[in-house]
Amino acid sequence: MPTPEPSPGLTELARAYGVATEYWDWQGNRVIVGALTISAVLRALGVDTSDDAAVTRSLAAVTDRAWRRTLPAIVVCRQSSTRWVPLHLPDGAMAQVWLVLEDGTRREVRQVDHYVDPRIIDGEPMGEATFEMPDDLPLGWHTLNARIGHDSVSAPLVVSPSALVLPPALRERSTRAWGLMSQIYSVRSRQSWGLGDLADLADMTAWAAADLRADFVLVNPLHAGEPVAPMEPSPYLPTSRRFINPIYIRVEDIPEVGYLSCAERQLLEWHADDARALNEADTIDRDAVWAAKVAALRTVFHQPRSSRRERAFAVFCEREGQGLLDFSTWCALVEKHGLSWSRWPAALQDPRSPAVDSSREQLGDEVEFYRWLQWIVDEQLATVQRQAKEAGMSLGVVHDLAVGVHPEGADAWGLADALARGVTVGAPPDQYNQLGPGLEPATLAAGPARGARLRAIPGHAAHRPAPCRWHPDRPRHRPLPALVGPGGPARQ
């Protein structure tokens, strides 16, 4: 049943928060999103739309929203272009503004002569000063800082490419690139542990490059899955898009395996025999594969590492920072409290709580184990990419991206303060599904933390080019405003 169209005030309010109010369907018709859907999205973003008066109040508040912030929540600049950024401060006050680049370099920022009339905000006169971001900033995530008297504030500043261009390997050739597409878990060999892994992928890329002259191999999303059973079978519903699923590790390729004692090596072989027996099955049993593999990986984890390897592990952990620590903490907490973090003790549902800090300390060895798993799988994936390029591939390994993440997963927990819950997301109807693909729980980016916290989602290592494809049969969490609703057909 069609829902009422939004009022002009509700439409204006939605646009002020970046929420779409219309779209064009697959037949070229303009579709107005229903008022109930728009209100549900705005409520998820913390906006009161309970009645017309509330919409009016919220609309009045949003016009002053920028003036209540000293700096914007996030600043996005194009490479080689300047950008004016407003700074709000008590009328007549002075401000100092500077940038700190990713590499720690400090850059002063110039104020421009651009007068804006003061405005009364909460009974106080406020002014607006304008600063110009230089046009020679490097690509990356930087920090914009401001000091007004004794008060200091900061905001993330992103410098994005001015245009998306083809990789050099494609720009410099006159013919099209081509490659193979495969679901890596299905590429099993005699040495597989019941599921195709990164060593199998390396063998396939070497064959495709040498014998077929392929430029790339496109594989399914490699995002992290659950650390305990039951494991989600679809790679398009990961627990985290920021990290890799360690189920793809080839245990024997870890350098420390060479230093295992005879007894430890025999234990590893027993686990391998159990897993390789699964190669004969017609279907993939991820839970059984992971049970055998994680037991073997724990044996290798406790093997002492050389100083060189220990240093490399420390560098990896430092590079991945808080995101890796949060993910590994979530994995350790899952082992103790179960997969559904919304059912954990209330104090553990906030990743920044003292209770989580205490649990992280108590579960220190487990947290370290999950950080180590990410280091190992990252190393092995980097090796696959390097060997693919050495074999002659112009691109190497390309992997797909899931549209979003599981509502009870690591990203939904670790980024809870930057994601709005309680809404669902789908895709508009098309010729294949006239009602629109089914809706599922969704998250929307909300709040000033979203830019800096979500920037790692597309992939955390440079050796993984990652085109994103929309799979209409698997709508998931999306870290951006979208057409969402409290239920019903996706066409709403």
Question: How would you sum up this structure, described in words?
Answer:
The chain is α+β, with helices and mostly antiparallel strands. The protein has 3 domains: 1-63, no CATH class; 70-160, Immunoglobulins (Immunoglobulin-like, Sandwich), CATH 2.60.40; 173-415, Glycosidases (TIM Barrel, Alpha-Beta Barrel), CATH 3.20.20.80. The chain contains 12 helices and 19 strands. It has helices at 8-16, 35-44, 52-63, 168-171, 198-212, 262-276, 286-301, 307-337, 354-362, 364-390, 410-414, 450-454; strands spanning 22-24, 30-32, 75-78, 83-90, 96-100, 106-108, 110-112, 119-121, 124-133, 140-148, 151-160, 179-182, 216-219, 223-224, 240-244, 396-399, 419-425, 440-445, 484-485. β10 (140-148) and β11 form a beta hairpin. The chain starts with 7 loop residues before the first helix and ends in a 7-residue tail after the last strand. The model is unreliable at 446-492 (pLDDT under 50).
Fold topology:
Layout lengths: L7 H9 L5 E3 L5 E3 L2 H10 L7 H12 L11 E4 L4 E8 L5 E5 L5 E3 L1 E3 L6 E3 L2 E10 L6 E9 L2 E10 L7 H4 L7 E4 L15 H15 L3 E4 L3 E2 L15 E5 L17 H15 L9 H16 L5 H31 L16 H9 L1 H27 L5 E4 L10 H5 L4 E7 L14 E6 L4 H5 L29 E2 L7
Parallel strand pairs: 3-11, 12-13, 13-16
Antiparallel strand pairs: 1-2, 4-9, 5-6, 5-10, 7-9, 8-9, 10-11, 14-15, 17-18, 17-19
